[in-house]
Structure formats: C-alpha cells, structure tokens
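hi!! sorry for the late reply, been swamped w classes. u asked for the two structures so here they r. pasted raw, havent cleaned anything up. first the sequence of the first protein and right below it the tokens
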Amino acid sequence: MEKFVGWLDKLFRRGRVIDPQMSSGMRYSLPDGSTALLFFGKKIVLSEFCLAYIPNGLNVKDPCDATQIWKSVGHMGPLGSQMRNAFGEDFKLNGFRKQWTTDLCWKDSDQDGRYNGYELGDPWCLWTPGSKQALYPPLSHPGICEPWDSEKCQSRNGSMQCNSKMPACDGINATDVKNITLRLPLSYVPARRVSYVCSLFNLPSDAEYHVIAALPIIDNSQILHGITVFGCDPRRQFNRTDRAYLCNGIPTTPCQEIITGYTSGVPQTCMPAEAGVRIGIKGFKQVMVAFQYYNPTRRQGYTDSSGMTLYYTPKLRRFDAGVSPLEVTHFSVPPGRESYEVVSACPGDCTVLQVASPIYIILGMNHMHRLGRKQRIEIHRGGKLQQIVTNDTNYKVVHPHYFWYKQPIQLLPGDMLKMTCEYNSTSENDTIEWDVSWRGEMCKGLLLYYPKQSWPSHHCQNYRSVPLCEIMIDAPVFGCHFRSFISNLATTNRTLVDTVIRNCGQDKSCSPLCLRMIGKVRQDPCLQGDIYDLWKETRLVKANTQLMAFGNHCTTYHQRITMPPSNVRYMFLILICIVQFGVCWKNGYDMPLYFVCPAGNMISYIRSIHNNTPEDRVWDFRCRRNPYGSNGCSWSGWVNGWDETFRFQCRGNGYITGIYSYHDNGPEDRRFNFYCCQPRGKVYAHSCYSTLPNGYDRQIQQTVPYGYTWKGVTSNHDNGAEDRQFVFQFCRLSK
C-alpha cells in the first residue's frame, strides 16, 4: 500500500490527474491542500495543480465568456474533460516539470500571433513560481487561437465552438442592406504600452439610413485591444484627410458620441429589430474611429490596418438608438486597500428633466483601469432597487464584458441611475488619481438605448460624490444650493462674508476669535465635504503677494490648533478677495474652471490673466439678465485637443452662458467645453462682429455690449508662449 501511495504522490507531483468527470474513482489530497480524483484505466489530463506553475494560471479567461475562468488551461474544455490543446502539448513536451521556461514563454503554442508569455501576462518572460515579479492581467488563452470565430482560428481550434450570447444579426444579408468599410490605412503602431490612433471617415449622406450592425476587421490581433466609433456632429464638417494620427482615445469635438465598437468581449454589434443608429441627411455624416493598442513590451515595428464594417439600410426602423455615458471624475484611490468603492448617481430630479419619456436599454458596458475589480450599474425607482443593468464581479480591463439584453430594460423619467466601482490598490504605494490615461483610474459606464429622441442630452457626470446635473439645475446637493450660493456670495450672503472680514481682516492677527468665526462659517453645507472641494477648485482667488503672505501666516499659526490649515487658507483668502479686491477668479492656475450663469442670465464681462510660471490663465466672468430668457441649454462637449486650433459657435441663435475647462501641465494647454442656451420665442441673432481681445501672454478684459450675446470663440495655441490667443464673436438679439 505504501508503494501504491508513493506512486500516486509521484504521479500527482508530475502534474497528472485522471479525468474528473468519470463516474468512479478515489479522492486524493495533494500536498498543497487541493484535491483530485483518480480513475483507473482512463485518460490522464493536466490538473489544476499545475496551474500554479504558469503565470496567471488560475486567472485565464474563457475565450467564449470573459466573465468565466478557464480552469484547465492545457485542455480544449474548461474543466479538463477534452483533449489537450496546443499549449497543453507543449507543456507535456516540457516534461511536466512545473517550470515556466523561457522557451515555453516565447513559444506561440496556439499560433494566433501572440506568444504564450504575452497571453499569460508575462511579456518579458521573467516570472517564476513563487517570485514577486509583477504580472499583467492575462490577455488571452495560450492554448486556444483567438478570436475563436476568425477563419484562421477556426481551423486551428478544431471542433471548439462558443455559444454566443449576443443577439443575432439577422438582417445583414437582406437585399436592401448595404455596407461600408472603415479601415485604418496601414500604419505603424507606437512603441508604447497603451496608445490610440484615430482616423476620420465619411458616411453615406445621400439619404436617410439606419446602421443595424457592425463587424470588426482584425489585422493585428497581437496588439489591437479595441475599436471605438464616434459619431461627429452633423452640423459641422471636417475635411477628410484619409490619414491616421495619434489621439488620446477620446476625439475632440465635434466627434464624441459613441455609436459602436469592438473589444474581445464584443466581437460584433447587432441592433435590435426596433432600432438603428441614424446616418445620412438627418444623421451622422462623418465618424471618427479610435483604435486602442496594448503593447506591454513597447516593441517597435508593429503595423496595423484593422477596421469596422457598418451595415446600413434605407428601411428605417421605428427608433433611433443612442449611447449615454455615466462617469465620476476627480476621485482618488488610496494605496494599500483591498477594497475601495467609488459611488456616483444620476438622481431622479435630473432624469425627470432629461428623459422625456421611457427609454429602453439594450446594452450596458463597464469601464475602469488596472485597479478595477468590480463594477455595477443599477436603476432605482421610488427609493428601491428596480433593475441591475451591469454587474461585473471579476472585472478585467483587458477583457471587458458587455451586458446585452434581448428584453430591453426600461428607464423612466425620475428613475435614479447608480454606478459603483470597486478597486484593489494593495499593489500601490501612492494614491492613484482619476485620469483618462492609464496612469490613473476611471469609473465610467455606457448605456446603449432607444429611442434617442427621448434622452437627447445626457448630463450624468459626478465630481466625486457631487452630481453635476444637480448643480446645473440648482437642486440641493447635501443641503447646498451650489449655484445660488456662488451667485449670492457677494450679495445676499454678504453677512457671511462680513463676519469673516470683521474678525479676520488683514490688519488683524490670526486670532482664536478669527478661527472660531471661520469654524462657524464652515458649518454652511456649501463649505463642507466634496461640495467645498468643488468650490475650491472652481473659485480660487487671484494670486496676491500680500494676501498669500497673510494666508501663510494664518496657516502657520493655525497648525498649532486643530482645524486643517488648508480650510483656513482657502476660506479666508476667497472671502477677503471678493470684498476687498472686487475680483474673484473662477479658477486657480493649473486648476479646473467651471462657471455657469444663473438661469435666464448671460455672460456680460470676460477677464483673464496669463502667468508665465504655471503657463496658465485664471478667468473671471460676470452675468446680466437676458431680456429674452433662456431655453434649451446644453454643453458643447470638448471643442479642442491639446495645442489644437478650434473654432466654436453656439448653434442657431444660441449664446454662451457657461464654460468648463481643465489644464494639463504636459502640453501646457487647456481644453474647453461651452454651455450654450437658446433664447425664448422668435428671437434672432444678427449683426455679428468679432474682436481680438488679447495677444500671447497679455490680459483679456472684454465687455459684451448691451443687447449683444457671446456667440462664439476661435482660438489657437502657441508652443513658444505656451498661451492661447482668442477671437470672440458677439451677436445682437432681437425679434
């Protein structure tokens, strides 16, 4: 018996176990605590015991369903019940030595163009069992050729078939259906870990069409991570260039509305029978296609010519389809946390204004970066959970999972959309900030829905826990009416300002009485938590040596007390600035700018100063009542990329009433997003003229003439001065 047990032990140590699906046998406890079944006279297969001896062996995704784990990497079946795959055979030829050798790592077992180490997250072939060598998430399966349904891979995967959970593209072979191929010109891929390449394409515009399906064309599967197709504003037209250029994955205005895409989790897009994406005369006439590449070894010389084929029909379906984004910005993930949640919401008092009638969600998508582990999007109705739209409990950035619904999910006006992102930061030593690049983290969701006309303008972005849509409508956020508080700070809230000034004037020291007054003022709900941080980022004061010196004195003194010194500094400097200097800049240098006039008002005064040290501008705006009122207000979207020239005008008779902007210290430039409103009634813009308010490094001080509105902006950036020159357009409004 001892010899028999010794033989069993030797057998298991060689990494062999008998097929676990056989009907009879004996259970054997392995030395590492796992168990296996031994059956006599049956085929020997590779056990899970061996998976600890290959990188990410316990985390390889199922090529058919990215939410599942392929538990037997060396076999054609996920449970080890089928024959060995090509990787399993190579592992066998390696003698089951439980060694991740360099030869095995660099070998492309499944011949899909990716070597085994690349697919298993060890692109430099440095990992060994028990080592602390950092691994990337596994990209794909080393023993199954992917994409599994490609012509090349079907011949290599034998009888393997995936049961697709996606709706069938039933109509693409109909006689009325045409197609257009959007293919990237053969281009070199940058030797970067993550990069994006964009290209502009024209669409048929001779009639009205609905896009009903989209299928990818994969040229270089080894590095292509995803494709996103963005629709361009049909009211604006780009000159087609037929060229590829580097981009950041989010094209500049006017091409920012996602209409379809490709990832390993979604090999194709098929619209339901009721809806399609409108192109043509009244729809999109141009699209920007962004190709995302993942090249962890930063290898040079890769090329690609992938693309998308769109299938479209002149037989319009009942509804237009649209895509709505949900996003949280400016959050931070602290280091060393096994679980850290970021929660955002698009509250019911926002959707009741934005969503005109019931909409139907047919697809949900989650998006985080490398620390993301779980993400879900929920619909709440009447204070109770109504429906879970997405729920990814094992999120992998390289294998995103899309949630398709043949039975659409209904969203009603007044429903709340709640999104929760969970991160694991145990691998980090520093705080990870929100960033659209892979250096930071993201918490974003996308919903594909119909009819688009019922939700034409979506504003479901959060600044941390603050829903910006509620800021726009001046709804209470944590007890604070933010816009009213800001607008009334120097008028009805003057008592609050005077209280601090009276006790903390520049001629007084930072006394205990001053600190008590500040502490009392800070009880205002608009001066607490995330809403206070939003205020600090959008209304920092003008740089002033005397004020800064006093603020530093107060900060130094206050470090001996208990209140955080930053609270004293920001609160005091902002209030002093408003009363004694008459100018309160709406942003600080290198800080975001967010300003919107109260409802029914328009911008009447624009001032800006450039500083050569931070190479940035601070801005100030003033508003006056618009005699014609305002209606149909919306954000333009980002109108420029870094260092780009832009020309923007509010559509129709609209005028600018707000601005959102953020700065990047790399290109030393700002991106701009304008808030435009339409006048009420039959009011027309005419007698327009333009003015050049500044030179590079020069201040802007521009008054909007009475009876005129701020219609548009043209701007170009100079890399020498690291500043922008602006041209403002003003138009008269009259009936």
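now the second protein. again sequence first, tokens right under
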Amino acid sequence: MFYPYAKTFQLSDRISSISGVGPKTDKLLSLLGIRTIQDLIEYYPRAYQDRINITKISQLKGKGRETIIGQTTRHIPYLKIKKVVISDGTGSCFLLFFGEKVEKFLPLGTKLIITGRAKRYRGFFSFSNFEYEIIKEGDELSGIVPLYRLTSEWGRYGQRQMRRIVKACLSFTKIDDMYKEIVQPLGLFDLEEAFLNIHFPRNWGCYQNARKRLSFDELFLLQLALQLNKKRLSLMPRKTIYEKPKTALELPFELTFAQKRVISEIERDFSSPHLMNRLLHGDVGSGKTIVALWMAHYVASNGFQVAIMAPTEILADQHYASAKKIFQDGIKIALLKSGISQKEQKEIKEKIANGEINIVIGTHSLIQEDVSFKNLSFVIIDEQHRFGVSQRQTLIEKARGLSSLFCDVLVMTATPIPRTLALSLYGDMDISCLDEMPKNRGKIITAIRSEKDLEKIYLFIKDKIREGRQAYIVYPLIEESEKTSLKSIKKHFEKLSKIFSDFNISLLHGRIKPEEKEETMKGFSDGKINILVATTVIEVGIDVPNATIMLIEDSERFGLSQLHQLRGRIGRGAYNSYCILITKERIIDMIRGGIKPDRDDEDYEAVERLSAIKNINNGFELAEYDLRIRGCGEFFGERQHGMPDLKLADPIRDERLLVLAKDTANNILEKDPILSNYPKIKDLLLNKFKGSIGLGVVR
C-alpha cells in the first residue's frame, strides 16, 4: 500500500527529510551514493522476487529462478558448509551457507521466502546461490517484490527497510515530468507511473512499460547531448587549408582497400569548411597506425604541427619507430616521454614551441603545462579510452594559441565498435572503420590447454624458436595484489629461464625502468630475444611479425577483449601463429563437452569467454558476442569515464527505442536548436554532461 498523503517533497530534497530516515539510515543510504530523494527513486532494483508464482518444494524443477516459501526444520553442520533444511508440507530442500552461524539468525521454525536456482543432488534440491527474506506476521506474500543492491551494514532486514523508505518517497514526493510533452505522443508511461512500477510493478507488463519509459529518458538525454555537441563542432570554421602533398609516402607494402577508403574520408574532412572530429576503429592489426601516420604526414607537409598521444611508453616507442622508417622527406619528428632525460625533454619542448618539430609523438608528457606548440593543427589520440576527458581536451586546447578554435581531431581504438553502440556512444563523431586485414598474413590457430600439457607446449615452443620464430609468454597481473603478482611472475621467469636455457629470454612488466623496457623491446624487435615473458603491458603497441606464439597463463582471468588484444600481437607476418590459452581442467572439460554451466557457476563467464576466443577470430564478431554476454555497461568505459551511466537502457536490447530517442532528439533540435522552450532539460544537460561532452552551443 502507498501512503495517501499530500505530495510535500521535491526530488531535490535531502533523503533525511523523509520520516523514518534518521542519522543511522541516512549514513547507510550515503554508502550507496544516495543523498537526495531523486537519488533513491533512481536507485533501481537489481532483481525482483516473483511472489505471484510460488513453487511448492515438491514441484521444484531446477530450471531457472524459482521462489518457495517454507520454514527451517533442521540444521546440518559440516566442516565449512552448513545445510539448513527447509520444509513446506509438500517436501524438503536444503539451503547451503558457507562459514556462517545460521543457528543464530535462522533458528528452527523461522519462516522464509527464498528465490534462486535449485540444483538436484542425490534426490534432493539445494539452493547455494539464492536470496531469502524472513517472513514476519503481516508481511505481503504476493506480487512482485524489488531486491536492491545493499551493503553488509544493512543487515538481514535491509531489503524490508529499503522497500519501506522507497514507498515513503514515492508516496510523499511530487514528481515533475519535464519530458511530458515529448513522451505523450509516443504512448509512454508518465514519469510517476514509471517510477512506481519500476520499484513495485503491478504485473510484469507494467514493469516492461516502466522500464521502457525510463530507458527512453536516458537514451533521449544522451542523444540530445551528442547531437548538440556535433552541432557545436560543425560551427567551428576551418582556418587551416591543407593541400595534398606533392610526394606521397613510400611504403614497403600496399595499403588495403579499407585503409585507402579511410584516408579518402579524412582527406574529405580536411577539405570541408569545418574541423574534423573523427573516430577510427578496427580490428587488431588492421593498420590504424599507418593511416594515422599517413594523415600526420599530410598535415606536416603543409607546414603545420601534429601531436600523436599514446597511453603507454611502449606504444609511443612503437609509433615513433614506425614513423622514423617511413618519413624520409625532411619531416622532423620527436618522441616526448617521461623516460628521457630532463635535458633532452627541455630541448624537444623548445623545438616544439618554435616549430622546428613537425610531428611530436608522446605519452601524457604532451599535456604538461610547459609544452606549447607554434601551430598545432592536428591531434591524434590512440587508444583514446585510456585517457580522461580532461586529458584529451588539454591536448586539443594546446592548438588554440591566440584563436578560440580547436583543431582537427582523430581518435583511435583497437576495440571494434558494434553499430548500435556507435550510434549511442559516438553520435557526435564521424566514424571510420578498418574492416579488412593486410594481405599475406598467416593464420592464427587458438588452442585451450591445461597445466599438465605445459611440457609438450614448451617443446613445441623450442621447435618453433629453432625454426627462427619468437614467442610471448603472458601472466596476469592482479591490480589488488600487484606486488604479490610481480613476485609470482619473477618466480615463473626464473623457472622458464631454466627450461629455455638454450635461448635468450627476457622479462617485461610495468615496474621495469624505462631504459630497460626500451632495451628489452628493441632486443625482441631485432630478434635478439627469443622469448618475452610479460604482463599485459604488451597488450598494445607491440608489432613483431616474427613472433608467432602467444602462451597465456591463467587465461580465465582475462577479459575477452584483452585476450583478443593479446592474440593480436601474433599473426602479423607470413607464418602461421599459435595462441595457447592455459586454464583449469574443469573449464576445458566443459568446453570440449559442449557443456554450458549455469549463470551462477563460478566458471560460467570463463567458459563463455574462452569458447568464444577459441572459435572466433574476427574482432567485430567478438565485439558483438562480448556485448551480448557482458551488456553495454563496460563498453561505456570505452567512450570515457565522464559519460553518465545508463542505469536501465541497453542500446543492444533497446535498439528500436534508441532510434526513437535519436529521431525525437533530432526533431526537437531542428525546431529549437538551443532548447529555449525546454529550460529544465537544458539545465539538466549542462549539469549531467559537464566535463564529458562540450555543450557550448546551448549556453
């Protein structure tokens, strides 16, 4: 029931304004990031307990999530696991607890409602991954009940307490629907009805309608911001006109059709009346660096400066080495990074400032305050998601000088971006895609093996090295225990040094001094080092065509994109390459047997990822697959940290809604380009997207 009182509160009011939210509860809510009534109402349930469809214990099927009601009848202690027997008069089942004193908080005779996935073992069903709530007299045992993400401080009655507070907020708060005129013609729920049914759905149909309305609001606001930013950029007139260089770069290979197409797209941007703001994405090894250097040469040949910023010194070194090989016509390039001496840094900065250097390649060092340019006109940002919004903007603003204008910008990522995400995340940018790999490259064969196979694998690696090839051996680095991980890697390296005593083997990780890192990379690139033992520091920026083996230890600890990036370090030459993933026997047995574990199985995600990486070589297919199993949440990190979270909307699942939101935003901006008729929406945009998307056009 909802309280039949007047709507006396505003969404912006402090949550402590609500009766029953004292200092202790206020502190618990602040741990969840909830400080205002709006924060709470937009703190959506993580799941729901379906109390409409209660299953008798005797009718449990063990398929999907099921809800039962019963009471505790027995405690069965084991060494680490404690079983609680639950009965409902039709049968009994077990609840499994790990290391908890269940006798204290679930004494015999306690009535519970339980939701989870039941598994049958020796004739009885058990719940090991479940949610439960103690039932008190007067509790509502019907309907669809929300379950929220709570911290341990909330205790065992936290869900009940949270529901009470949310109900109070929804009952007492006046909800102003700033999108009312916009959504009415679309047949969507009004906002108050949507909030009510996302927290306490009358039925599953009402829940779907509530999610649809709130998802539309999220996508609509995002599309407004992206379209406004695109308009802002289109209002920046070009003052630098580039002529096509008289002499093209001479490359020792032929560009792919895709590379030629992208170069033409960028050339068209350079001849347009407005500045370029373009994203270049493609699979690992598709040749983004060559495209970037080709266009850098194009601009530098016109007498303007170019800055290329990479997230790591290894990647910057690689770009610099590539540039030195192909720039032969007087173009002056420099490498600026923290690993070089202060004296050398000072000299390079002076040459950048007076225009002696045409193209500067560097890391975060490029955005230092004392780095200034004479006529910076083109900025290239590689692996752009590894930089913060403010870091990217700082480099771009170095092109201002005495002008209020920015420069041409090309950002690159080695993560292929599915179409719907391109629409939702990069709607303010023009997008180029490298969807073709260079010719004359060998195949990459991916295999999954266990530790018991390592002896044979080491023999295989030795044979390949004797044939003249090189190998990577990669270990995971766990951020929470970096020091411990490094010690472990060093021990592995000592062991491998003995196994491969007839070969040159080196260790590479993030803590190695820059000069040692550079020396190691040069040695591997020149073929003097046969085996490179490393962490994921080699994930990007390594291009050694002679390296044909990638052995990844504890591969279940890596993400799918990370595994594909590592695999992309091989297969860059004419020889066949081999990516060998070491993992647990249990995971291998499930993959080989075609067994798909339950979603609550500890190895579920590992089985999904490793099966995918084994069977799919194409980065675009992998990106689509990764999106299906992960959802879009983590991909938003690719755009950058400043972007607001989508709490309910999913651009893949909600593709039609996304298109509707985009079309609606476009229609409004065509009639009202600066949102003068929508002051509340304008204020929300400026507040929510502050620092992540430029919205100067509506100020």
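hope this helps!! also noticed smth abt the second:
Residues 444-636 form a domain with the Rossmann fold fold (CATH 3.40.50.300).
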